[in-house]
Amino acid sequence: MEENSMRIFNEDKTQELIDVDEGKGYLRPDRVIKEHHEAIPEKVIKTAEEVKDELIAQGKEVNLRRYENDEGQIEEKYYVVTEVYYRNGVRVGNDEDEVMPVVEAGKEAWDEYEDILVYHPFTDEEYIVYLRAERERICFPVINRGAAWYARLTAEQKEELDAWYQAWLDVTDTKVKPKTPSWI
Q1: Same domain, 1 and 90
Q2: Strand runs (DSSP E) across 38-149, as ranges?
Q3: 78: which of 17, 52, 112, 129 fits an S-S bond (Cβ 3.0–4.6 Å)?
Q4: Which residue segment(s) compose the domain that 168 sits in?
Q5: What phi and psi, each to the nearest 5 degrees, are found at residue 71?
Q6: Three-state SS for 38?
Q7: Is the same domain home to 18 and 54?
Q8: Ramachandran quadrant class, 146 (left: phi over 0; alpha: psi -120 to 50; beta: rest)
Q9: Are residues 50 and 81 in the same domain?
Q10: 124-181: pLDDT as tens digits
Q11: Which of 111, 109, 119 is nearest to 30 (CA)?
């Protein structure tokens, strides 16, 4: 197996595999949850009441408004005057912004992932396709080298080559990938 920095797991990702036979299956990239982080709620740094008091201490004009909410309860909201409008020296209106609490934003729950490989053993049909492709890739380029190459082989090498070739021809029945002679 080729040296790989990613961990390898079985198909349902419940067990890490230490050694896999890539000649009997294939690897596919995937990922698993490395660590789950719970949501972080927002945190109130200053309440609207505290912000209102600071604005008043700074000399800002703050107005109180009372509203009836959908449940029929009275709610109070503070508004700071941001712009005042005059006509002929008389105040005729102003813009206001709602005084809001100062909050530290929260964060939704999140997961950290690790990239992994998942080992999928071949089905019988996939394994036959794999063996045929291996025969094309490994065996046929050797067998089809031509007369000049064959003429240089010893009788022992020709005998070993014939047995190796026959093993490749039978590979879809035997399902055993032949070991290539060292001299090839």
Answers
A1: no
A2: 43-46, 62-68, 74-87, 90-98, 102-104, 110-121
A3: 52
A4: 122-184
A5: -90, 5
A6: coil
A7: no
A8: left
A9: yes
A10: 999 999 999 999 999 999 999 999 999 999 999 999 999 999 999 999 999 999 999 9
A11: 119
